[in-house]
Model the fold of this input.
Amino acid sequence: MSFALRFPMKTLIAAGAILCLSPVTASAFDTKARAAYVVDQTTDTILLAKNAEDPLPPASMSKLMTLYVAFEALRDGRLTLDERLPVSSHAMSYKGSTMFLNTQDRVRVEDLLRGIIVLSGNDACVVIAEALSPDGTEAGFARYMTERARQMGMDHSTFANSNGWPAAGHRMSVEDLAILAERLIEDFPEYYPLFAETEFLFDGRAPSNTRNRNPLLRLGIGADGLKTGHTQEAGYGLVGSARQGDRRVIFVISGLDSTNARAEEAESIVNWSFRQFAEKTIAKAGQKIASAEVWMGGQPEVGLVPAEDLAILLPALGNKSVSAEVVYTGPVQAPIKAGQQLAELVVVPGDLPEMRLPLVAETDVPTGGFLVRVRTAAELLITQFLNGPEESL
Done:
C-alpha cells in the first residue's frame, strides 16, 4: 500500500528559545576616517562600516593583493623564497617608497617580500609582478590581480598596477581590503609573521627606509599587521589586525589627514573593539535548543542542537536585550540523520547585525512504519475535510 499525499511545508518559528541573554548595547565608534570597516574575525561580526563598499584609491594598501598572489605562487611551487629575480628598468623607475633596487640586482624572493611588507617598496612589487605576470608586464599582472580579486569576492577592487601608485581606475573598497586581510591571515599562516616585523635593513643601501610604518606594532596591544598607505589623493590609511586572547580584530581606515591622525584612530579602534565587546558562548555543542516537527517519521519530532559551541560577540555594557528565535521549514520529512542541518538560530544582539547560526538534528529519525503512515494519512485527510484543501497547503 502506498501513499501520495501533499503535506504542508511552512516556515516555522520556535520563538523564545533564547531571550534576554544579557543586557547589551555599545556606543558606535565615531571615526574620522573617510571610510572604515571593522570586523571581529573570531565571530565574523561587523562592528563598524562607513562607506565600506565605496571604491577608493587604496595607495600602498593594495600591495596586499600583490603579496597574496606571491604567496599563492610560493604555495604552488611557481616561486621559491631563495629564488633570485631580475630588476627591470621599469621596476627601477618607480619613486616614492623603494628598496633602491637597480638593474644590476638579482634579489631573493624572500627579501622582496620583506621589502614590500616592511619597506613598502614600489620597485619590489614590480619585480614580483613581472615574474608572475601572464604576459611578463606589470599591466598584465594588474589585470590578473583584478580577476583574482573577483574570484575572492572582492567586487569593488580594480587594479592598474602592482603597488598602489596613483593611477586612473586603481581602486579598492575598505570592505575588500578587510576580506583580503582575512584571507592573508587564514590562508598563509606561515608567512603572516612577516607583517609584524618592525625593521628590515636589506643590504644597508636604504638607511632612510628601514622601519615599518605601521604605528601599532610597538604598542603592545596585540597588533601584528598589515599595511599602511598614503598618497595625496588617498590620504593616510591602514589595514590593521590585532589579537588579544582568543579574539582577533581586522580593521581598515582610509582618508585620514596625517600620520598622527592615522596612528590615533587605529589605536582607538583597537581599544574600542576589545574593550566594548566580549565573546560569549550562548549554547554548547549538543545542547538541545528546540524541537522540529517530523513528517512520516518513527517519532513526531527531533531535537535541534548546535553542532559546535555557538559563540557570539556582545557589547560589554548597556541595557538592551538579545533576542533569538529558531527558524526552520517544516515539518521535516523523515528519514533524518543525526547532524543533518535542519534549522537556524537567528540572534539579534542589540544594535549589532543579525546573526544566523546553524542547528542540526540531535538524533536519527527513521521513516515511520505502516501504522505511522496510515495514521498520518488519516490525520491529513481529516484536516483537509474540516478546513478545505487550501488550508492544508
Notes: The chain has two domains: 10-23+282-392, 28-275. The first helix runs from residue 63 to 76.
